[in-house]
Each structure stands twice: as C-alpha cells, then as structure tokens.
C-alpha cells in the first residue's frame, strides 16, 4: 500500500536536502547520521602504530558518491585566467618529474560528535585522520606550464563527485588563494599515487589534490578541472560550508589549517562495547602521534589523572617530513583502579589543545584533548 498522503511528495531539492542544524539536548544519533558513519570510516586508533597508514585504514569521507573513473580516459583540464589552457591525461602527468610528500590528513569535522550540543552531520569522535605518502606533480609546475595571468587570484578545483547539500545541487568544488596554490612549502600536489600504488577509488582515483597542513575538505578528490579566477570563489563548499560560526546567520571564518592534536594508541585490551581499556599493574609505555598544520609540534604532555597533572612525553626527532605526524611516548606505572589517560599537543606557535570544547555550529576543528578510560586489574 502507498503510505504517502497528498502533498507529501518532494517538490524541490530543498525538500530532500535539509538545512544544517544542531541536535536538541537529549536527541540521539539519527539513522541518517548512522548511515553516514557506515559509508565513511575512521582510523582504528591502534593503527597509529604505523608511520604510514595503510590505505584501507586511512580515514575516508565521501560527500556524495564515489564516481566511476576510467584512468585510461581521464583528463585534467587547466584553464580560466591562464595564457595556455592545458588538457592532460594520466600518461602526460606521469611523464612529468614526480615528487612524493608524506602528509597527515585530518577531516575538519573530526571530534564533532563529542561536542555539546552536537552539530548534526558525520559523527566523528577522534579517528578521522591518516598519514600517507602521496606521489604526483606539484600544482605549481602545472600552473607555470599554463602561464598564470596577472589578474588571477584563486585556483578553483572541481571533483567528479556530484550531489545535493542543503538544497544546492553541485559538483564538489573548492578553491585556494593563488599564493597557496603556487607555494613551494607546503607544496600542493596533484596526486595519482598513495603509498606507492595508484589511488584507491575511495581516495580519489585517478587524481586528487593534496594540500599539506590543511583540513581534508581542501584535498579535492576525483580532480578533473582547475580553473584560475580573477575573483574569490563563492561556491557552496567555500562560502557556505566549512566556516567557523557560532550562529547560523553570520558569515563565519573559513576553515583552513589543521589545529594541533595528539592521539594515544589505546593501551591494554578493549571491552567490545564500551572500548574501555583493561591493563595490568606495573610499567606500561604510553605512545601515539601528534601533528599540527599551523606550525611544527614542539611538545606533547600526558596526564594519567584526567588532566589534573601533566608530564612531558618524549617526541621523536624530526624526520624530514614536515607535514606528517610525529611519534611520542611516555612511561607510566599502572596501579589498580580506574584511570583516565589524556594527551595534549602544543605547536611552535604556542597553541595547545584545549581542555574544554571549542564549540561551533558546524562542529569543525574540535581538537579537544582525547580522554582514554582505563581500568587496571
């Protein structure tokens, strides 16, 4: 039987694509949020032990659908305010001198589900991160070949993924100021390989952008067009989404670089449902990773009493990968009873992770310290 009543049928995109909102105080995670969580996935925190994240464990966020992509027929166009428009297939891109950068990538919404009140969207906890070796062609090489016109101010990147968001039908599209697009450090890549192999479909096969130090929304996947413009880009993903706002009616500030964060490899072994960790009494090494897209991480501190006291952890020496996470470790003697373990990163600008939530309507950039409940038995 048809359960629809007259007048219930969607009449426009706005009827099937609702505005952004904040959950009511006692509102549970919705089926829609669970569906997003099933489509996307985070890094299992025990995988922080890898210097380079295996592709299947690296976090994934797909806004719309993974588009069909044939590497044999894929073309990247470079146009707009350039002297010589380009149309490059994969063979032409691979013929250019390749570079590889190890980059830690984090979703801008990482930590969203831990905010109160909760912005309704992909319900990340702390696991939306990964580090990979990305290989490709520097964006500045392609722009130099195309010849940037003097009036160009931004580069706009278009992916092949298509959908609707808050009533706006769109291809996924983001931009970078020209100064960022042509910088040598960090050097933006048009990447075709991840960890030495072709990009997996969920990571943008056959081409994606990699913007070291920036949150994941800037790393446009399934990249097929770069257009230089003489005015700032005002598309949905730039001017509407990915803004730090306290209220829905304010323009907000753009989400750009990654705030400092430290994560701990959960020690011991977990309870299946609660993920509470069980450890044994005695000496125990705590370890994890720390990163920042704003300035190098210079300090990691740990607390074993839920932030009441702190001690410095040992940071691994710089390894030449300026835009990758760093390993840290500290020794702890576990004693019987419950404990809450915490890690906190500070970068060279003096910015430390907060101990209270940095709330905003979109749930972006929540780098509140991680808390790991442990029971020592």
TrEMBL record:
Alphabetical GO biological process terms: sulfur compound metabolic process
Region span, Disordered: 1-20
Name used for this protein in its record: Nitrate reductase (NADH)
Compositionally biased spans, kind Basic and acidic residues: 1-12
Record-annotated Moybdenum cofactor oxidoreductase dimerisation domain positions: 282-374
Domain Oxidoreductase molybdopterin-binding: 63-236
Organism classification: Bacteria, Bacillati, Actinomycetota, Actinomycetes, Kitasatosporales
GO molecular function, one term: sulfite oxidase activity
SUPFAM superfamilies: E set domains, Oxidoreductase molybdopterin-binding domain
């Amino acid at each position: 039987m048809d359960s629809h009543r007259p007048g219930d049928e969607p009449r426009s995109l706005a009827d099937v694509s609702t505005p952004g909102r904040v959950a009511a105080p006692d509102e549970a995670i919705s089926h829609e949020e669970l569906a997003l969580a099933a489509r996307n996935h985070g890094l299992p925190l025990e995988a922080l032990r890898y210097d380079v994240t295996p592709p299947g464990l690296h976090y994934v966020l797909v806004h719309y659908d993974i588009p069909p992509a044939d590497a044999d027929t894929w073309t990247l166009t470079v146009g707009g305010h350039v002297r010589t428009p380009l149309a490059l297939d994969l063979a032409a891109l691979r013929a250019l001198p390749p570079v590889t950068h190890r980059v830690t990538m984090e979703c801008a919404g990482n930590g969203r589900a831990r905010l109160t009140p909760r912005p309704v969207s992909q319900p990340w906890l702390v696991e939306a991160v990964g580090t990979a070796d990305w290989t490709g062609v520097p964006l500045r090489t392609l722009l130099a070949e195309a010849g940037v016109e003097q009036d160009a101010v931004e580069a706009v990147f278009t992916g092949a993924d298509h959908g609707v968001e808050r009533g706006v039908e769109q291809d996924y599209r983001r931009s970078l100021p020209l100064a960022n697009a042509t910088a040598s450090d960090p050097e933006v890549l048009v990447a075709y390989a991840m960890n030495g192999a072709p990009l997996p479909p969920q990571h943008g096969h056959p081409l994606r952008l990699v913007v070291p130090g920036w949150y994941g929304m800037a790393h446009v996947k399934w990249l097929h067009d770069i257009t230089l413009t003489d005015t700032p880009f005002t598309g949905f993903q730039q001017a509407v989404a990915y803004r730090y706002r306290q209220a829905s009616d304010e323009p907000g500030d753009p989400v750009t670089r990654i705030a400092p964060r430290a994560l701990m490899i959960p020690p011991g072994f977990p309870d299946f449902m609660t993920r509470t960790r069980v450890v044994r009494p005695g000496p125990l090494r705590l370890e994890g990773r720390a990163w920042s897209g704003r300035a190098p991480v210079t300090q990691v501190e740990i607390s074993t009493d839920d932030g009441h006291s702190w001690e410095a952890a040992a940071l691994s020496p710089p390894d030449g990968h300026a835009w990758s996470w760093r390993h840290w470790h500290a020794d702890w003697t576990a004693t019987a009873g419950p404990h809450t373990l915490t890690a906190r990163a500070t970068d060279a600008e003096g910015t430390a992770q907060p101990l209270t939530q940095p709330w905003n309507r979109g749930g972006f950039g929540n780098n509140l310290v991680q808390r790991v409940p442990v029971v020592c038995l």
